[in-house]
Amino acid sequence: MKTSTVIVSLIFTFLILTSSPVPVNAQNSGEYIIERISRRFEIKYGGYIFIYDTITIKGSSNTTLESFIFGFPYEYRTNILDCYAYNFSNSKEIIKSSFTSEIKKLGFCWMKVTFPTAIKLQDGESYNFTVLSILENVISATKEKDTWRYTLTLPPYPSLTMRVTKFEASIFLPLKTNYTRMEFEKFAETKIEEYNTTANTVIKYSQEGLEEFFYKPKKESHISFIVVDPIQIIVLNELDKEIRFDEAGNIYVSDSYYITSKSIEEIESIKLALPWNASEITVWDEFGKPTLKPTVINIEKNIYRIKIEPPIQTNESVRFKVSYTLPADEYLMRNGLEDFSFNLTLFENMNLLISDFSLKIILPEGAEIIYLETSNLNYSVIQKKVFADSVVYLSEDMVIPLTQIKVQLQYRYNILWSSFRPTLWIGTAVALAFMVAFLWQRQKLKPAVVMPSIKISPEDLKSFIDAYEEKRRINSELEILEVKVHKGKIPRRRYKIRRRTLESRVSSLNKRIAELKEQIRSAGARYADAIGQLEVAETELETVEVDIKRIEARYRRGEVSRSAYRKLLEEYRKRKEKALITIDGVLIRFREEIR
């Protein structure tokens, strides 16, 4: 078995070294050399690895570059989350790279970046730009007593189609790192030149004359180190940001997070970067209850520690919300009597990657959008309602620390709208007062009719609660039954028999519950109100179920985007939770009546 493995490895290496490439890039003309590449590895919060490659190209005679191709050993193909290029001359653009098949060389995967404008270089003229590659799932961890050993699997050298005159690299490890020099000897072709433990633990190595199509197997590209504090590996699946203005110009922000833990240890708190001038910060759990007040742990970057209760276990997900206010005088400018300008730059100090991001801006009642512009957000919808406008942005790409999302919004708002609601309420109150007076005048001569109330017994209340709980249990069993038959875990014949039995039982319970409802309703206004709340919540649940089925059908037909689909499902989930809380509250009150 070992002999066959060695043979396969030798054949694979032979193919890598002997396969010939096609011409690099037909769009580029003239000769140039890659004079220098400086590579920097950084471990980012959340467990991502950022690889910064600063590339210096020196032109020959009349060199024209329209694109640049770089790569990785093919074994890293599934670890590459995204690649970007930036710091171009005369441009602040961030260009997303894409996979390309222009280079036919076994054992590598290739990325291509197309420059914003063609680069023209004279003989000896240099040009610099930076490529950022983001890797995921390249960190593994084991616990050793009171410490943690982490192993990183990283590509030590870039894969390029031409020779590099000088290559140098630095690996920035966490603070308080314990390691031995021998753990890095196989990682680099040359010995470690320097390491220190000043701010971070830094490992440096270099290579003179890095050959084209340089290949180093993944199995030889490991480095390990020991730390006391574990590295949190977190995926921020969704961030839904809502910015709301009131009539006085106050700005209220609500950030709804949906995160998943990939750490092997439970996570009791996470670190989040908030805007520099955020105030009145409150954290809410997924049930809408406020949690412990967040604490600042990094004043320079304005990073807060957010407590998570209960702690998140491995591969578990949790939702929570952070709300705060922003000072209006820094973001909102008044132009004349009715026109307002809002300017905001998002994620200036972010510390997590965002897989799915949405932004909703809600204007004060009576406001109208007159101008809208944004950068690095691909899709927006203006929602025009009767009394106010709002705008929704949906990002189709991952949001990374390089992404500077800028929002410019102008709206028109008449200050008289601030008195609209009070005037409406006062008018409604006056109208109701006249109506009550009129009805009282008509009824005052008639003898009062007292409706007799029927006293409800504890036994009837208990029967109602028991019947209702059994109905909920059976409905839950029906849902589980549906899932099992779709997955093929039970025969369809057995499913039909069991379903008919359960539905027959639910039908009998519905009749009994309807009879008990009428008895409870006639026991007085307090009981009638409770039954009314229960029925409204039941109707809401039925409506939500219909809405969910409808949106799922539309999503399967491709009528709505993935972002819109997930956002609507989240709204339906919140409505369902609210209705279930109402039902539970009514049943709890009835139980208290029995005691």
Task: List its salient traits.
single chain, 595 residues, alpha+beta, Immunoglobulin-like, 3 domains, 8-stranded mixed beta sheet, 7-stranded mixed beta sheet, 7 helices, 28% helix, globular, disordered N terminus
Structural features, described:
It is a single chain. By secondary structure, this protein is of the alpha+beta class. It folds into three domains: 2-227, Immunoglobulin-like (Sandwich), CATH 2.60.40; 234-413, tricorn interacting facor f3 domain (Immunoglobulin-like); 455-594, no CATH class. It has seven helices and 28 strands. The chain has helices at 2-18, 328-331, 420-443, 458-486, 492-521, 525-556, 562-594; strands at residues 32-43, 49-59, 63-73, 80-86, 95-96, 98-100, 108-121, 126-135, 139-144, 147-153, 164-173, 194-197, 201-210, 222-227, 234-245, 251-261, 267-273, 279-284, 295-298, 303-312, 317-326, 332-335, 339-346, 354-362, 368-375, 379-384, 389-394, 405-412. The strands form six sheets. The protein has an eight-stranded mixed beta sheet, with no helix packed on it. It has a seven-stranded mixed beta sheet with strand order 18-21-16-15-24-27-26. A hairpin with a 2-residue loop joins strand 9 and strand 10. Helix 4 packs antiparallel against helix 7 (562-594). It is globular and about 100 Å long. The chain starts with a helix and ends with a helix.
